Amino acid sequence: MSVFETWVAAFLTLCVFSFLYKDNPFYRFAEHLFVGASAGYLLAVQWQDVLIPNVWTPLLRDHRLTVLIPLALGVMMLARITEKTASISRWAIAFYVGIYSGVAIPGYIQAQIIAQLADAAKPFPSGWGALSAGLILVGFLGVLSYFFFSAPHKGAHGIAARIGIWFLMVAFGASFGYTVMARVSLLIARVQFLMGDWLHLLPGS
Amino acid sequence: MRRGPLLVTFLSGTVIAALFFIPHHKAQEFNSTLLGWTLVVYAFALALGSLSLWENHARKIRTRSEGWPYSLVTLGALLIVTGLGIWKGVAEGTPVGRIYNSVNSPLGSTMFSLLAFVIASAAFRAFRARSPEATLLLLTAIVMMIGRVSIGELMSDKLPGITEWLLDVPNLAAKRAIAIGVGLGAVSTALKIILGIERSYLGRS
Amino acid sequence: MVWARRLLALDRRIIFALIALGVIVPLLLPINLPVAVSPRVRAAFDAVDALPAGSVVLLSMDYEPDTMAELTPMSVAILRHCFRKHVKVAAMTLYPAGVGLGEQALNQASRDERAVRNTDYVWLGYKSGFQVVILGIGENLRAIFPVDGYGTPLDSIPMLRGVNSYRQMSLVVNLTASSAADYWIQFAQGRYHAPMILGSTAVMATDYYPYLSSRQILGLIGGMKGAAEYERLIDVFGNGRRGMDAQSLVHVIVVLLVIVGNVALFASRGWKGGRGVGGVAP
Questions:
Q1: Residues B65, B25 share a domain
Q2: Domain boundary pick from B126, B154, B180
Q3: C33-63 tens-digit pLDDT
């Protein structure tokens, strides 16, 4: 980045950080600028990376008339912007919702259900690994029991659900620990930018 | 007015799901064609979001709603970035490439880096060991936060092993059950959409 | 207990200042704490390291500026590893705002390892649609990406001659902050059996352990710590490793805040039981 771009980036970074003290016009300016610039970038990228290579070039250079179908569906999608024409967009929405739903069925069944059930049902390894594998199976069945709400959590089902809760607490604790790690990493990078790239205060910058 | 779109959803969903299992090259060519069309329609759906943003902020300016000058910033940024991106492209070194590096990227990353402060404040105020389950969650989170970073590795050479065990056994068991549950939910929702039982995506009749 | 009640009413801006100091001080005065490598990152490294020279890897950098702090160091480390091994990389993204970040990672890594565009790597760019793109690559790469990110037809790019689907790719690497990981696993790995490694933000990393167990993914790089471990394996001191001192100190601060918060609460009110954060009804 040039010196000017670095200063612009640093100014905008500080505008956002000013929110930590309290909401203020600098923060609101930065927030609105971000929304507009992001939406503009998204439109520009769709134009350059999707519409030109996948629609205009096949249509105008290669004369592939079949691209008129997705183009028509896309234009119908845009009709949603006004209430009067919104019903036209249903055809386009129906097409792509149908495709995504159809694609989801074999995808989820194969990769998330069958593959995971197969791994849950595999034979235990020998030695201490059998203890861990046994615990995994117990925890897996316990958590499944907990999420089955069609029957009351009583008796054997209730005991299994309670075991499931303990495993869930460990899993959520692990997730929380990792979430803290993730958020802190984001802050570290911004401070590295301000102190290194902008102010050149860091060793080696 | 909804029967036609519902039929389109049914046909597109069934055909694409069936093509998953038909290896014949003509079927797979048709599969590729349908996927290519969906890609284009999806691009228009994303563009619709930006147009909706435009309409929302333009209305705020027209009606002089609270904060309307900020809407000028949003619309100005949207117009400038879109126009420059369509005219000059979006690659590194182009005007939009420079705007991305000095505006979009620092604003986006700084907005999310605020979460580091928020999560620390939340941990102090809300993370309470009020029950045995909450205590287990809290202890697991603490072990994870310390054990996964360098300082934990220095405190005890057993900590990394303990964190790996927590992730490989109780966490895995719970997340596997959750993954299967999510998969079953996704498949049932997809089936309901294809069969026309779920129609909310088409909007009000 | 007055001190406990005062502590519980602590202005959150003091906590913010503590966190800020916890980041700033280690960056100004680094001690370069050692980074131990976890088995999951080692497995991801080994999957790339085992590739013969001339193999083609598909690298999908599916993230945006909000998560670049964790994922860009991973991208650069994996790219540098591939370039050192003379493994060719076809890079792409499923996120429009990931275009700039993908290019930056490629430019940085290619500069560091003197890799040449269209010979050692190609930037395919962005395509919308997630699942349809992933499935489409499995059938016909050129139907989805007729040209690369700079408008060059794929047929005229030397390293992509004969490469038109996952069958001709030795490994798929997905670096992501979203459910794109699920789609890559479901379709690229599940449908087309492409060997796969995953890099994710730390928030998501714990969710993908079941896929490691079932060998649907061969390795997992989680968060900035994972990036630091990968950098250690390729003997590079990048932004991942640079951040580890600050990461350690802030984690200690957060743990102390949790402990102090609980001590203050129990000192001021005593144990009352009942529902709490993360707890369930007894």
A1: yes
A2: B126
A3: 899 999 999 999 999 999 999 999 999 999 9
Nearest to B108 among C64, C210, C225 (CB): C64
- Cβ-Cβ pairs closer than 8 A, B with C, add up to 200
Please measure the distance between the N-terminal and C-terminal CA atoms of chain C and give it in whole angstroms.
Answer: 28
- Contact across the interface for A111 and C28, Cβ inside 8 Å: no
Please give the full DSSP string across C226-250, using - where no structure is assigned: HHHHHHHHTT---HHHHTHHHHHHH
C-alpha count within 13 angstroms, C-beta hemisphere, residue C134: 32
Dump pLDDT digits (tens) for C168-218. Answer: 999 999 999 999 999 999 999 999 999 999 999 999 999 999 999 999 999
CA-closest candidate to residue A191, choices B162, B122, C69? C69
Tens of pLDDT, residue by residue over A141-175, are 999 999 988 888 889 999 999 999 999 999 999 99
Question: What's the pLDDT score for residue B1?
Answer: 67
Token pair for residue C215? 């060998």
List the single best residue of B50, B109, B150 to mutate versus C (max C Cβ within 10 A): B150
Per-residue pLDDT tens digits for B74-128: 999 999 999 999 999 998 889 999 999 999 999 999 999 999 999 999 999 888 8
B171 & B106 share domain: no
Return the number of other C-beta atoms located less than 10 Å from residue C275's C-beta.
13
pLDDT of residue B205: 64
Cross-chain residue pair A115–C202, CB shorter than 8 Å: no
Q: What integer pLDDT is reported at residue C265 of this predicted model?
A: 85
For residue B23, pLDDT over 90 is answered with no
pLDDT attached to residue C270: 59
DSSP state, A123?
P
Domain extents in chain C: 2-30+244-269, 39-237
Domain boundaries, chain A: 1-63, 65-122, 127-205
What's the domain count of chain B?
3
Q: Is the CB of residue B133 less than 8 Å away from at least one CB of chain C? A: yes
Beta bridge partners of C196: C172
Averaged pLDDT score across all residues of chain A? 93
For residue B120, list chain C residues with Cβ-Cβ distance below 8 A.
15-16, 18-19, 250, 253-254, 257
Q: Which positions in chain B touch A184 (Cβ < 8 Å)?
A: 116
Contact (CB, 8 A) for C81 and C236: no
Residue B116 and residue A143: Cβ atoms within 8 Å? no
Backbone angles phi and psi of C199, in degrees to 5: -120, 130
Q: Is any Cβ of chain B less than 8 angstroms from the Cβ of C104?
A: yes
Residues B183-193 have pLDDT tens digits of 999 999 999 99
Name the minimum distance, in Å, from the CA of B17 to any CA of chain C.
Answer: 12
Kind and range of the H or E element at C257? helix C244-269
In 3D space, the residue among C134, C60, C51 whose CA is nearest the CA of residue C88 turns out to be C51
Q: What is the CATH code for C39-237?
A: 3.40.50.10160
CB–CB contact B130 C107 (8 Å): no
CB contact under 8 A, A173 and B74: no
The token pair that represents B121 in the structure block: 């404040």
Assess whether pLDDT exceeds 50 at residue C280: no
Range of the structural domain that residue B55 is part of: 1-88
ipTM: 0.88
> B64: distance to nearest CA of chain A, Å?
16
Tokens (6 digits) for B79: 């117009």
* Shared-domain flag, residues B109 and B84: no
Record: contact C242-A192, CB cut-off 8 A? yes
Joined together, the tokens standing for residue A66 give 């079949």
Q: How confident is the model at residue C76 (pLDDT cuts 50, 70, 90)?
A: very high
Q: Which residues are within 8 A (CB) of B157 and not within 5 positions of it... i.e. 6 or more apart?
A: none
